[in-house]
Amino acid sequence: MKKNVLLFCLFFVLLLSFGCSDGGKVKEDEEQVELLVSAAASLTDVLTELKEEYEKDHKNTSITFNFGSSGKLAAQIEQGAPADLFLSASAKDMDNMNDKGLIDEPSRIDFTQNSLVLISNKDSTIDLNSFEKIDSAKIDHLAIGEPESVPVGRYTKEVFEHLGLWEPLQSKLVMGSDVRQVLTHVEMGNADLGIVYASDALISDKVKVLAKADTEWHEPIVYPGAIVDSSRHKEEAQEFLDYLMSADGKLQLEKFGFK
């Protein structure tokens, strides 16, 4: 009897060990996914910080970002560049992607907003507190995003056209390939003034905000996100998009100056 009990116990231990070992093997064999995210340059800092926390909670997902102007990112995806998720600083660029069948339309969602501000170098003596008071005769260079491909440039052009300043300022404009290049021009003193998002001004200790644009002067600055239709990792892309909309994601976005 005692012998049977010992044999049973030994069998049970072996069975348990086998089960644990098999479970570990299944976990190790789970697919490691590299999620490719094409994101607006203005999202650089907040997404870089979010990445660390997200990957801690999603062990089998690593995120690789491709930052740039939304227009150029959209063009890259259209030309076949790999991407699982597109995070744009412009509804227009996302609309164009949708019209061409390049995004999974049901996944599209506006996940944050931003505002437009006028900045100068922190050591500048320019005395200005309004967009309306910009005088082309009193400045040498004003940095803005390229309106054709950079959303912040498009919003800036709308503001200047509304205020009747677009034509008078033409000879003063320095075009940036994305909002971060605009910020850099002002930081380095290559431009007297610049127009960037509030979130970009917040992360720099080399510039100061002189004025904020009235939201009625330009189209709403919304950030839509959507899964790229050709993605092979749509489930993981949706999970990251959901994370941006979660309480934690919104908290981080607000911390970096987004609405």
From TrEMBL:
First and last residue of the signal peptide: 1-22
Residues engaged in binding molybdate: 42, 70, 179, 197
Entries under SUPFAM superfamilies matching the protein: Periplasmic binding protein-like II (SSF53850)
Pfam families associated with the record: SBP_bac_11
Keywords: Metal-binding, Molybdenum, Signal
InterPro entries: ModA (IPR005950), ModA/WtpA (IPR050682), YvgL-like_PBP2 (IPR041879)
Domain of life: Bacteria
Alphabetized GO MF terms: metal ion binding; molybdate ion binding; tungstate binding
A biological-process GO annotation: molybdate ion transport
UniProt-listed PANTHER family: MOLYBDATE-BINDING PERIPLASMIC PROTEIN, SULFATE-BINDING PROTEIN
Protein family per UniProt: Belongs to the bacterial solute-binding protein ModA family.
Protein name per its UniProtKB record: Molybdate ABC transporter substrate-binding protein
Annotated source species: Sporosarcina luteola
